[in-house]
Design a protein that fits this description.
- With 382 residues, the protein is mostly beta strands.
- The protein has one domain: Beta-galactosidase, Chain A, domain 5 (Distorted Sandwich).
- It is 8% helix and 33% strand.
- The protein contains three helices and 28 strands.
- The chain has a nine-stranded antiparallel sheet with strand order 12-13-14-15-28-24-23-18-21, with no helix packed on it. Strands 20-19-22-25-26 form a five-stranded antiparallel sheet, with no helix packed on it. A four-stranded antiparallel sheet has the order 3-4-5-6, with no helix packed on it.
- The radius of gyration is 22 Å and the shape is globular.
- The termini are far apart.
- The N terminus is likely disordered.
- Bound molecules: beta-D-glucopyranose.
- Beta-D-glucopyranose binds next to strand 25 and strand 26.
Length: 382
C-alpha cells in the first residue's frame, strides 16, 4: 500500500472509532447477532395476514412473535456479560414453521395441550373423537391444533400484543365454539407473561399452553444436559408406553424425577428407569406443590451464560420435556443451524395430560357462562 493511501486509511479509522465512541448509548446491552427478519413472515395463510411483531423493553431485550400459531420466534435476553442471547429455538422463515412434523417451536397449544388417550373422551355421557396425530393418541389438539392457526393480532405499545382466535364448534373434534384470547406482555424485568382466556357456547374441554423450546446457552448452542433444574413438585404422573398417564400421582423422592433440589438435567437422564425409557428421557407431567402466581415453580440455569429462567404459573401441572425427539437432521434452524437431540427444554404449564379420562385429575371441563383463565410467566435473570 502506498504511504499516502495508508495515511488516509489511518485517518478514516480514527474518525470512525471516535464517532462510534461518541454515539449515545441506546441500550445497556450488546446488540444481538440473531434477530428474526420481519419480511420473512409477511405473507398470507388461509387468506389471513401473517406478520412478525416485536416487543422490546428498556434494556433492549426483545421478543418477536408471529400470529401464525401465536409463536414466540425469538427471545433475546442479556447474559452475564450483557450480551443479548436468543434463548429459544426457531426458524428464519414461516415456511419452516409450516412443514409437516414441525415440533411446535414456540407455539400456542390448544384446545388441549398434551395428550388425550386414543383421542377419545366423554362429556355429559356423549363420546367425542379427536384427530389421532401421535401414535394411537391425540397430541397438542390434533392436526388442526391452534399451533397452525392464524390468530388476529393487536399490538398495544412496545410491551404487549393480544392474539385472538375463534375455534368453530366441532373443529378438530372438540364440541363448542371457543373464543380464545392470549396476551403476551414483556416487562422491563425481562419477564414474558402469557395470559390465556377462553369462553365456549357448549360444554367442552380446554388446556392451553405455550411450547417454547429453551436453550439458555443460546439456541443452537449444544445440549441442555448441563442446565441446572429445580422443579417445585414432590410428585409426578407416570405414563404408559404411549406417554398417557396411568392415573397414578407418584412421589419423586428417590427417583430420577426428583428436582426438588436443583441438579443438572443430565445427571440422571440415562438412569435405568422404565419411565425414562418410555419418554426417551424426561417427557413427564409434574404435579406442582401448592403455589400461587408469585412463587417460582421451576428454575433453570446455564452456568456458561449465567442466564436463569424462572417459571411462574396459575396451573397445577408442568410438562418437563427434555427435547428427546429433536434429531438434528434438518439445517433449517436459525442461521442454518440444526437442533440436535436434547438441545432444548420445554416447560409447558398445564392441567394434567389426559385429564378428561381421569376423575382424580383436576377437571379441564369448561361450561358456557364461565371463563377459562390461566397465567404463566417466563422471567429471565442473570
Ligand atoms: C410432548 C412430547 C412431544 C413434544 C412435541 C411435548 O409437549 O410431551 O412428547 O414429542 O411435545 O414436540
Amino acid at each position: 500500500m502506498k504511504k499516502n493511501n495508508y495515511q488516509f486509511m489511518l485517518a478514516a479509522v480514527l474518525v470512525l472509532s471516535f464517532t462510534a465512541c461518541n454515539q449515545p448509548q441506546k441500550n445497556n446491552v450488546d446488540t444481538a447477532d440473531s434477530t428474526a427478519k420481519t419480511s420473512a413472515y409477511q405473507t398470507e395463510v388461509d387468506g389471513k395476514k401473517v406478520e412478525l411483531f416485536t416487543l422490546k423493553n428498556k434494556s433492549g431485550a426483545t421478543v418477536t412473535i408471529t400470529n401464525y400459531g401465536g409463536r414466540i420466534v425469538s427471545l433475546l435476553v442479556p447474559d452475564k456479560n450483557n450480551k443479548l442471547t436468543d434463548v429459544v429455538l426457531g426458524y428464519d422463515s414461516l415456511s419452516s414453521y409450516r412443514k409437516k412434523g414441525e415440533p411446535y417451536f414456540g407455539a400456542l397449544i390448544g384446545r388441549y395441550g398434551n395428550r388425550i388417550g386414543k383421542g377419545k373422551f366423554k362429556l355429559d355421557g356423549k363420546e367425542y373423537s379427536l384427530q389421532i396425530n401421535d401414535g394411537v393418541n391425540t397430541l397438542h389438539g390434533g392436526f388442526d391444533g391452534f399451533f397452525g392457526k392464524v390468530w388476529d393480532a393487536k399490538q398495544m405499545g412496545d410491551d404487549k400484543i393480544e392474539l385472538t382466535y375463534t375455534s368453530a364448534d366441532g373443529e378438530a373434534g372438540y364440541p363448542g365454539k371457543l373464543d380464545v384470547k392470549v396476551t403476551y406482555t414483556f416487562n422491563d424485568d425481562n419477564a414474558l407473561k402469557i395470559d390465556y382466556e377462553a369462553k365456549t357456547d357448549k360444554t367442552t374441554v380446554v388446556n392451553l399452553t405455550n411450547h417454547a423450546y429453551f436453550n439458555l446457552n443460546g439456541e443452537g448452542n449444544n445440549t441442555i444436559l448441563d442446565h441446572e433444574l429445580f422443579i417445585d413438585a414432590n410428585a409426578y404422573t407416570p405414563v404408559d408406553s404411549t406417554l398417557i398417564p396411568t392415573g397414578k400421582i407418584t412421589p419423586v423422592k428417590g427417583t430420577a424425577f426428583d428436582f426438588t433440589t436443583a441438579k443438572t438435567i443430565g445427571k440422571n437422564i440415562e438412569d435405568k428407569d422404565e419411565q425414562l425409557k418410555f419418554g426417551k428421557g424426561y417427557d413427564h407431567n409434574f404435579a406442582l406443590n401448592p403455589h400461587d402466581e408469585n412463587k417460582a415453580i421451576a428454575k433453570v440455569k446455564s452456568t456458561s451464560t449465567g442466564i436463569i429462567l424462572e417459571v411462574y404459573t396459575s396451573e397445577p401441572g408442568l410438562q418437563f420435556y427434555s427435547g428427546n425427539f429433536l434429531t438434528g437432521e434438518t439445517k433449517d434452524g436459525k442461521g442454518g443451524k440444526s437442533y440436535p437431540h436434547r438441545s432444548a427444554i420445554c416447560l409447558e404449564t398445564q392441567h394434567f395430560p389426559d385429564a378428561p379420562n381421569h376423575a382424580n385429575f383436576a377437571s379441564t371441563t369448561l361450561k358456557p357462562g364461565t371463563v377459562y383463565k390461566s397465567t404463566t410467566t417466563y422471567k429471565f435473570l442473570k
